[in-house]
Specification:
- The chain is of the alpha+beta class and 243 residues long.
- It has one domain: Trefoil (Acidic Fibroblast Growth Factor, subunit A).
- The chain is built from four helices and 13 strands.
- The strands form four sheets. It has a four-stranded antiparallel β-sheet with strand order 1-13-11-12. It has a four-stranded antiparallel β-sheet with strand order 5-6-7-8. The protein has a three-stranded antiparallel β-sheet with strand order 3-2-4, with no helix packed on it.
- The chain is globular.
Length: 243
């Protein structure tokens, strides 16, 4: 009888392990598909009834200072405009989908269903990878994980050891057009005006779809609902390599 009980107890574990392995295989196949591996930029669509709408609609997502920001887009190049203060344009989000390593997630049982994550190249000044031994060989761009801060809900980027403590996915795209960026199956994204002037909008995850009332943001700063839409990187500009 003891043996029978142990066998019965082991059945759900075995089934769970088998299902987790199957889901990991499916997710790996999806992530390795040509569509998932194609790098893309993120453009902003905003139809909010606000005098500030034009500062958000049509912008492009960029990476700087550990966060995702909105930046005016050059209509000719489709990339960020030059810095109005004379500096170079900020680094555009240039990312793709990848499964986040389940073994690196705290308090998550193994085996467990995989989570589809999102990565992006980061500004060259933040790329601390060792220089290539060959002068003619270009340095591989460094990738960071995109995540939503579990307290503030702002979208940030960082190494795996940092991202694993926050909301790292699942990221995906809208089923109807495979264009809109989703987090946890929703397009709940908002732009928050951190600084006035048109260059100070950052990106947040509006988990409760309440314009961040739950975290007290709406009382302090202007919040506009928006969506982030994928725009594939042109073939000649694709330089992402995953190490």
């Amino acid at each position: 009888m003891v043996l029978d009980l142990l066998t019965l107890v082991a059945i759900p574990t075995a089934v769970g392990a088998s299902e987790a392995v199957h889901q990991q295989r499916v997710l790996d196949e999806e992530a390795e598909s040509e569509e998932r591996q194609a790098p893309f930029y993120l453009d902003v669509f905003c139809d909010a009834k606000s005098s500030k709408r034009d500062e958000v609609h049509g912008a492009i997502v960029v990476l700087r200072e550990g966060k995702l920001w909105l930046w005016p887009k050059d209509p000719k190049t489709g990339l960020p405009k030059k810095d109005p203060d004379g500096g170079p344009p900020p680094h555009p989000f240039t990312g793709l989908y990848l499964p986040f390593p389940t073994e690196d997630l705290p308090h998550r049982p193994i085996p467990a269903p995989p989570i589809l994550g999102l990565v992006s190249t980061i500004p060259p000044t933040e790329n601390t990878s060792s220089p290539s031994t060959s002068k003619s060989r270009p340095r591989k761009p460094k990738l960071n994980w995109i995540y939503a801060d579990k307290k503030s809900h702002e979208l940030r980027y960082g190494p795996r050891a940092e991202a694993r403590h926050h909301i790292i996915g699942p990221w995906d795209w809208t089923e109807d057009d495979e264009q809109g960026l989703t987090l946890c199956d929703e397009e709940c994204i908002v732009a928050v005006e951190e600084e006035s002037g048109g260059y100070g909008w950052s990106v947040y995850w509006d988990r409760d779809d309440d314009r961040l009332k739950g975290v007290g943001m709406e009382k302090e700063k202007r919040v506009l609902r928006c969506s982030l839409e994928r725009r594939l990187v042109e073939e000649g500009r694709r330089a992402i390599e995953v190490e």
